[in-house]
Design a protein that fits this description.
The chain has 317 residues and is α+β, with helices and mostly antiparallel strands. The chain is 35% helix and 22% strand. The protein contains 10 helices and 15 strands.
Length: 317
């Protein structure tokens, strides 16, 4: 999995764009939805196709956003869309029609497959996920059950028979810390800029920011100092970090801001386009976007840290 991804060359960017998924042209969007409808029909389910979802006669809705992003980012282009879409639809229907894992799995197995996930608050149902913990502005931690073909995000109702939320969260964090690092890449610049990226197919790769100390230890063999680290989670399969040890973090901050913003666009499982300061498990947002593009927002505490690091380096000469 590459760290910087670009969609394959398809219809030119100056042709009319799909109103729902702007990374598609109008023709590509129509082709994508037609294949989705055909895939459901082949499995015996007629659906009504809308711009961002399909609905069956029983009222079940199936969102298209992530699947559209997967097709958009597929390097082989539209020729393999039918294959991707049919596999996805088959998996979705198997999951929907199967008995609930919460009813068939023993409690100890559920706890062994429980993980915390960091997700965007966009579309999060506050009534169903009242236990969700805010980890940064617009980002929340929920608990999820990892299944062979899907991830089940657990609601208040689903968690109730499993135990107390703090105990379940601690078990989920233990499971998260034990995950292997699937892939690691280091981004370096000629000016000395450097940051690390953990990548993987796991849906919990980005969520490992919740166990950052364990990840840094696995990747670098060193501990996170009291100054903390810069982190970015553009989408669910990437976690970028730069451990703060000197004023070189300024170069990393600027590079990671661009990295996070570009990695967030048009990706399945997008989380955040921003960079954060991780310190003792707390996340403070450092980058933002406005009409003029990216900007760095440095609060008093982070400014004092930067000033101290610069002074220490100046005193050393």
């Amino acid at each position: 999995m590459g760290i910087f991804r670009r969609g394959p060359r398809r219809d030119a960017s100056d042709v009319p764009r799909d109103p729902e998924f702007g990374f598609f042209s109008n023709d590509e969007g129509a082709r994508f939805r037609a294949v989705v409808r055909e895939a459901f029909a082949e499995l015996g389910l007629e659906v009504t196709v809308y711009a961002d979802m399909v609905k069956d006669s029983g009222g079940r809705q199936f969102g298209l956003g992530n699947l559209a992003a997967v097709c958009h980012n597929e390097p082989r282009g539209p020729r393999v869309w039918p294959e991707l879409i049919r596999k996805h639809v088959a998996m979705v229907l198997r999951t929907m029609d199967a008995p609930s894992a919460l009813e068939t799995m023993p409690p100890e197995q559920i706890r062994a497959q429980l993980y915390p996930r960091v997700i965007s608050g966009d579309g999060l149902d506050a009534q169903s996920f009242g236990y969700a913990r805010s980890v940064a502005p617009g980002l929340y931690e929920i608990l999820a059950l990892d299944l062979p073909e899907s991830v089940m995000m657990l609601t208040d109702e689903a968690l109730e028979p499993l135990g107390k939320v703090p105990d379940l969260r601690e078990q989920a964090l233990r499971n998260l810390r034990e995950l292997p690092v699937e892939g690691h890449e280091t981004v370096k610049g000629d000016d000395g800029m450097r940051f690390d990226i953990v990548v993987g197919d796991s849906f919990y790769t980005a969520s490992r920011v919740l166990a950052l100390e364990a990840v840094v230890r696995q990747v670098t063999g060193r501990e996170v100092p009291p100054e903390g680290a810069l982190v970015a989670m553009p989408f669910r399969h990437q976690l970028a970090f730069h451990v703060i040890r000197d004023s070189g973090m300024v170069l990393a901050l600027n590079a990671m801001a661009s990295f996070a913003a570009s990695g967030y666009e048009d990706t399945p499982g997008s989380i955040s386009p921003y960079v954060y300061w991780w310190r003792g498990g707390t996340l403070t947002q450092l980058s933002d976007r406005d009409g003029e593009g990216l900007r760095i927002v440095v609060g008093e505490d982070f400014g004092e840290l930067l000033e101290r690091l610069v002074d220490e380096e100046t005193d050393g000469f």
